[in-house]
Amino acid sequence: MSHDDAKSRAGWALVTGASSGIGLELARALAEHGHDLVLVARREDRLAQLGEELARSNGIQYKVIAADLARPRAAEEVVARLSSLGVAVDVLVNNAGFGLFGPLAEASIDAQLEMVQVNIVALTALTGLLLPPMVTRRAGRILNVASTAAFQPGPGMAVYYATKAYVLSFSEALAGELTGTGVTVTALCPGPTKSEFQAVARMQSVRLVTMMRMPGARSVALAGYEGLMRGRRVVIPGWTNRVGAHLGRLAPRAWVLGVVRRLHEPG
Fold first, then answer.
1. How far apart are CA 251 and CA 151, in angstroms?
2. What is the pTM of this model?
3. Which of 160, 161, 166, 225 is an active site residue?
4. 143 in Cβ contact with 94 (< 8 Å)
5. 143-169: per-residue pLDDT in tens?
6. Which residues in the chain show pLDDT less than 50?
7. How many domains does the chain have?
8. CATH number, domain with residue 246
């Protein structure tokens, strides 16, 4: 089969938060396997640069949609733009998200609510709007980027951990709903990863970051891509993260809270 034939069979993939980190590397992995790309993020210049690079090296098509998913109704605007472009999405990657470090009593509530908007509301809206055509076609794949934070509460990042618990629960439940439809849902749950996340969250100096050898975004993205293509429901890259995730569910809650709290102290 020629490269062009492979590309046409792969279809269009939409990746949110594609301008850096895991999202960028997921876009790269999809392009390397022949998917045409819709790249979504706030930074249009970065998206255009990435799209040109991936089109040149992989022979794919790409579209750029600059959108701030922290704004209400942004997801609906993205889907309207897809319609105007005539693009039917075969693979949806809900990667956009961010974290904020610090106790809620000292936090900006507006910033916390923006995090909920991106991590939960936009992800849910994009999924709900793009899912029905996939079910009609009886083909489609959805990858929602959660986190190992999804497996336990996180004192010091209470809202962020809760948003990722939502993403994991939502993804697993949706996968159950879609059994037999030809559409799969995968939750990618990475641990701390080398990216812009730590700087945005202002947590570069905490033990969770300083005590760990963090994997690169590329290896995490490849694990996510492989799991997506296999239709796996949950992907946790790295054996230490898998052990930690299971401990977070099985250990006494008070002990888990104490451990996470210590990991969020300066290291």
1. 11
2. 0.88
3. 160
4. yes
5. 999 999 999 999 999 999 999 999 999
6. 1-8
7. 1
8. 3.40.50.720
